[in-house]
Amino acid sequence: MVVDDSAVIRGMIARWVLEAGGFEVVCTASNGRMAVDMAERHKPDIVLLDIEMPEVDGLAALPMLLKAVPASKVIVISTLTKRNAQVSLKCLSLGAIDYLAKPESARAVDAAMEFRRDLVEKLRALSTAKPRTFRKPASITPMPASPVPSAPSRPAHARPQCLLIGSSTGGPRAVERVLQDLKPALATIPVLIVQHMPPMFTAVFAEHLQSLLALPCREAKDGDAIAAGTILVAQGGRHMGIAATAGKPVIRLSDGPPENFCRPAVDVLFRDAASVFGSSVVAAVLTGMGSDGTAGARHLVKAGATIIAQDEATSIVWGMPGSVVKAGLAHEVLPLDAIGRSLKGLITGTSR
């Protein structure tokens, strides 16, 4: 179901969905009230939901949609403004699973083509994803639900000096959960996060994490020191790497070409971290589509770092973590509710 107050945008998105093949547009709606009524009748698998609409906007409609069709996967679409980024993140906290940056108009050709590519990629990833399993908190187990091919042995070394997190689809809520479970150990280690997000969204996400965790958290800037107790989020549209300056690690941003169609890319961060920090890194690869992070994980494992991947049952899309697991690069494959506790044990030196 496509929900947008612009007839032009509704028609454009519906046409692209049909042209992608394998999908059917069961209905369209011009406002949230109409969307709820249609959702009850048509039971769409995926809802593309605009934020700014008359009568009932996307934020107000979302809980009603999920009540009407709990199994629907809602992707929020919005233009790139700070307010829309804030509302989109709010929608994620209410149950939407992803977001898309909408072109200002159908005439913005480059932006429209990027939106089309991202839309089709997300639809295909979500249509093949297995239903998630919601677990009660359980004791940590290092055994994944499925065999890990040639999984590396757990490195034995000093406590980690840097925590890296890579995520994409479903990532904001997963990152929140991991960091909340890590407190108060977060005050003892720097945290670097690459979450696939458009520009402006990453700054709002960093502000949200700072409010949630009551710790310094901001969008990374070139030359930022990497210091314990600070959380840095990669800027949307720029790679976040690491360099050693005067013997101290600092952030290096770049406008290099996308890797795995991503900028920022997890691979860039992982690769640089392996070179600068070596074995004193622990990395978590969380829910997300694609394979970003796998190539960088190879560098980390070779350097002696530790990698934890989210399991398939609790991932929105088991693309990124699944790729790391299938490549035999994960030391542990854990449900989301166990990852923070496992990381805390490694960081504080209290792991089994």
Any overview of this molecule?
The protein is of the alpha/beta class. The protein has 2 domains: 127 residues, Rossmann fold; 187 residues, Methylesterase CheB, C-terminal domain (Rossmann fold), CATH 3.40.50. The strands form 3 sheets. It has a 7-stranded parallel β-sheet with strand order 8-9-7-6-12-13-14, sandwiched between helices. The chain has a 5-stranded parallel β-sheet with strand order 2-1-3-4-5, sandwiched between helices. The protein has a two-stranded antiparallel ribbon with strand order 10-11. α4 links the parallel β4 and β5. α6 packs across α11 and α8 packs parallel to α9. The protein is elongated. The N and C termini lie far apart (48 Å). About 4% of the residues have low confidence. It holds the Pfam family Response_reg. One of its GO terms (cellular component) is cytoplasm. One of its GO terms (biological process) is chemotaxis.
Short description, anyone?
Its EC number is 3.1.1.61, 3.5.1.44. By secondary structure, the chain is α/β, with parallel strands linked by helices. 38% of the residues lie in helices and 18% in strands.
Keywords:
single chain, 352 residues, Rossmann fold, five-stranded parallel beta sheet, 38% helix, 18% strand, cytoplasm, protein-glutamine glutaminase activity, phosphoprotein
What is the average per-residue confidence, as pLDDT, rounded to a whole number? Answer: 90
User: Hey, roughly how much beta strand do the residues contain?
Assistant: 15-25%
- Order of strands in the sheet with most strands: 8-9-7-6-12-13-14
List the uncertain runs: 133-147
Number of helices: 11
SSE ordering: EHEHEHEHEHEHEHEEEEHEHEHEH
General form: elongated
Annotated CATH homologous superfamily of the largest domain: Methylesterase CheB, C-terminal domain
CATH class bucket of the largest domain: Alpha Beta
Q: What is the percent of helical residues?
A: 25-40%
Domain Response regulatory: 1-117
Region (Disordered): 135-154
Catalytic activity: [protein]-L-glutamate 5-O-methyl ester + H2O = L-glutamyl-[protein] + methanol + H(+); L-glutaminyl-[protein] + H2O = L-glutamyl-[protein] + NH4(+)
InterPro entries: CheB-like, CheB_C, CheY-like_superfamily, Sig_transdc_resp-reg_Me-estase, Sig_transdc_resp-reg_receiver
